[in-house]
Amino acid sequence: IKSAALTPPRARVQAPLPLGLRTARGEQRVRMATTAALIAASGSFAGAWKALGGSSIFFHSFKTLLLGRTIRTLEYSAVAEREGEYRTITTRALTLWHLRRAIARSLKHTCVETYPGATRPLEESDISEMAVWIPPGFTEHVRTRRDLRIIGDGAWLLWSREDVSIPARVTD
């Protein structure tokens, strides 16, 4: 049994060059031909990239990471005395926790009454229900990560502090 440490490394075998290319000038010609082939291949790639709309596809796939996604939020309240809070938020990462945190941060001056006489700032855990407004008068609940796909750029998101279900169909 031979050990790997005792065996000498194998020499890299190259195909012999034709007689006319064994000189320094011949090697230069081989390098130039290889470079020309690479330039031609990159040119055809660039042409295909433009023909398929590569830059616009690239921009739209990374737009939300770079610029964020703008979402309009409106508080839904079952209590008639309290008006809903309207805010526009921008989030780069679209998860349930990031949405709740962005809403809570945009309403940092709003206080929640814990018990009579005591208040605290709004937190992520206070947002119990979220739903996306779908025109002309429907809402789609956002409860799982899979539901986040329906939230587009510029979407309306209804949210509630109470454990009240946001209605699926809104009528006049």
Structural class: alpha+beta
Distance between the termini: 87 Å
Task: Please state how the strands of the largest beta sheet are arranged side by side.
Answer: 2-1-7-5-6
Average pLDDT for all residues: 77
Major sheet description:
5 strands, mixed
Number of strands: 7
Helical coverage, percent range:
25-40%
- Discrete helix count: 3
Radius of gyration, CA atoms, in whole angstroms? 31 Å
Shape: elongated
Describe the 3D structure:
The chain has 172 residues and is an alpha+beta fold. Helix content is 31%, strand content 22%. It is built from three helices and seven strands; from the N terminus they run H-H-E-E-H-E-E-E-E-E. The chain has helices at residues 24-51, 54-67, 96-106, and strands spanning 69-75, 86-91, 111-115, 118-121, 129-134, 138-141, 155-160. It has a five-stranded mixed β-sheet with strand order 2-1-7-5-6. A hairpin with a 3-residue loop joins strand 5 (129-134) and strand 6. The longest helix has 28 residues, at 24-51. The mean pLDDT is 77.
